[in-house]
Amino acid sequence: MKALEITGLTKFYGDIRGVENLSLDVDEGEFFGFIGPNGAGKSTTIRALLGLIKSDLGKAKILGLDHIKDQTEIMKQIGYLPSEVNLYGQLSGLEFLKYNARFYGRVDMNRIQQLADWFEFDLSRPIDALSFGNRKKIGIIQALLHSPKFLIMDEPTGGLDPLMQAKFFELLQEENRKGTTIFFSSHTLSEVQRYCQRVAVIRQGQILEVSSVDKLRQKQLKKVRVSLEDSNIKTIDTGVFMNELNIKGLYELKRLQSGAFTFDFDGNYPQLFKLLSEWPVKTFTMEEPALEEIFMHYYKKEGEA
Amino acid sequence: MNFNIFRMSMYQSRKSYMAWLITIPLLVAFGMAFYPAISSSLSDLVGLFENPMMKGILGLFAMGPEQLNSLPGFYITYASIYVILMGGIFAALTIISDLGGELRDKTTEFLLTRPVTRRTVIVTKWFAAVCRVFGMTLVLFVVTIMSFSVFSKDAAMIYFEEDKALSFVEAELGESPEKISRVWTLDEDFFKGWMMHTITSLMESDPGALEELDVDPSVLEDLISLLEEDPESLFDDLLTHPETYMDMFNIPGDQKDLFIESINERKLEFETLKKRYVSDSSFHYEMFTMTPGYFMRLVKTSDQKALLIEQYPNIEKEVNKLIGPYSISRLMVLHIYLFLFMTTIVSLATGLSVGLKDPKNISSLGIGMVLVMYFISTLLKVSPVTAAWSWISPFGLIDQGLTGGEYTIKAFNVGLLLIESLGFLGISLVLFEKKDL
């Protein structure tokens, strides 16, 4: 059985497109990433799946059940973390979690305490007094509390510090090992690459590709910045340098005002380093480009700038 | 219905609910504390009601001197301004702060991803608000009865369901006519008053007879007051100076004998009547059967009512139904109206919460909605023509005729309130089902 099956999902907000004719499958037990830049339609897809917004067209099945008709049954078996966690401000963390637990049966205090300890979360504080990151934590706890078969998370790591992100994914991996299907959206390629088995890429309301992470891993576009020794800069023929850099997998080479060079690179590193070693390189920095830039690079539609 | 949501709704609204639960009943108790002062100085206020402009303004609030004199009359005058309006605002806010608050704070997203349907969420929130409204009605009812019983000692008596109750009072009283004199203290002084009552009612029913006499009105007034104070001396004066009176009534001189004869007849009639009145108690029964309502209305204080019951212990139940400073069953009817009214407002505010695209200003909109409906119903009361349309506003459906004759649950009012309550709830369900969150 598929954990998630979307066929032809379409949602327009008036004239503005949310998602259009979107189809997607997630197998049971999968750790699935849903990646796309801001405004691509990730949240719209998830919210339409959960029935929070009404889709215009299309069908969806969650755990084999119709996502609208069998909503109540589905909600018993899934955990959901929204991108923006809006909770009852006057309640304390514990009061809220108990309230949440009662929707699924008995309150298991051990489980609450266990999850709170894991995230170093103070249950006694009122939700209104919590920081953005702490609110995210209680959002995560409520999604996991009833040990759901299927976890749907909308940008779960936003607001969490790197340490907490690591702990969060550690917990998710453990749940995944126990058989929980995990579906989460993100706009950070690296975290999807690290944890997911398969990834769906969405842009402008449409799925561009669904691939295994290994395939995606080949698309390791990085932003590189190189500067050469000051004393030599005038004597170096920058034209020759730029000409030599023109190798496979190097794009958008530019010379900055400061004299440094920047380019995007996803080619062969030994080849690049060999080439650079013949020049007086002063600094070499490499960073993760913004997702939008990756999209511009790999998924640029024809006719688009 | 979902008990978990219900309990949370009650838990989250507990503080504001307590505040309302104290404030509105306190307003009632505080208002009723003015009753003794106002009812004792009512004669001073009568002038106020004669001013046409004031009359118009006070009429809007169903105010009149007769209204203010009795305990329920004073209450309903006061209640229609404060209790019902505040009740309406409370009802609107109690659901808005719950359901509207969830929509505003986007916690509905949390609720709707739990294993509950949208319908369950709305129905549960609605039901929780109706429960709070019911609690408010109950507390108001108890506090109103308590403040009534505190101030009822010197309150004027009012009469309920006269037609129904009078017949058995009449039957019971007839068997012991001498007790009638005791209960209503029918002495010689009362006889004069009763004579006047008979004469004036005679004149009112036949004003033509007086006009034909062609008598100066001021002279006639003097005559009537003389008759009231000392009927015997009027008869004596008529017999000693018949010419003066014949002149006054334009009776020709040759009819002097006839005039004297007729005066003598009337005098004899009067004396016989008076003799029977003072000595013969069965005569009181005759009088009572003629105008029982008149006698019943002579019971004006709690002491007199107590005396009546003491004399006729068998009819205590009937007397309690008939006469009292207030009636608990009527207050109950009013509070049933109040409950249904507040439920209607809850349903309306549910629709408002769900239907509003941007729920930021929902609280002020809710209060505004209640005030507008109140204003409409007040305006409609101005003329009898528009009053026929007062059902448009739920305020107009609360029957406030607490002191009137027939005061019961009216099928039209109650039916319309129920239909509106369920109708607006139904609309809310449909709207919410389609809503994008």
Most extensive contact: A-B, 27 and 17 residues
Number of strands of chain B: 2
Report the portion of residues of chain B in β strands. Answer: under 5%
What CATH calls the topology of the largest domain in chain A is Rossmann fold
What order do the strands of the largest sheet of chain B run in, or round the barrel if closed?
1-2
Shape of chain A, please? globular
Number of structurally distinct domains of chain B:
2
Q: Roughly how many Å apart are the termini of chain B?
A: 21 Å
Pick out the low-confidence regions of chain A.
none
**SSE series of chain A:** EEEHEEHEHHHEHEHEEHEHHEEHEH
Radius of gyration of chain B: 30 Å
Quaternary structure type = heterodimer
Q: What structural category do the secondary elements of chain B indicate?
A: mainly alpha
How many helices of chain A? The count is: 12
Describe the structure.
The complex is a heterodimer of chains A (305) and B (437). Helix content of chain A is 34%, strand content 30%. Chain A contains 12 helices and 14 strands. Chain A has helices at 42-49, 71-77, 93-102, 109-118, 132-144, 162-177, 189-195, 213-217, 230-233, 238-245, 269-277, 291-298; strands at 2-13, 16-27, 31-35, 57-62, 65-66, 78-81, 150-154, 181-186, 198-203, 206-212, 222-228, 250-255, 261-265, 281-287. In chain A, the strands form 3 sheets. Chain A has a 6-stranded mixed beta sheet, sandwiched between helices. A 4-stranded antiparallel beta sheet of chain A has the order 2-1-4-5, covered by helices on one side. In chain A, a hairpin with a 2-residue loop joins β4 and β5. Chain A is globular. With 437 residues, chain B is mostly helical. Chain B folds into 2 domains: 3-154 and 327-434, no CATH class; 158-324, no CATH class. In chain B, 77% of the residues lie in helices and 1% in strands. Chain B contains 26 helices and 2 strands. Chain B has a two-stranded antiparallel ribbon. In chain B, α10 packs antiparallel against α26. The longest helix of chain B is centred in the first third of the chain and has 34 residues, at 118-151. The mean pLDDT of chain B is 83. The A-B interface holds A 47, 50-54, 71-73, 75-76, 78, 80, 82, 84, 86-91, 99-100, 102-104, 142 and B 4, 8, 12, 105-107, 109-110, 112-117, 434, 436-437.
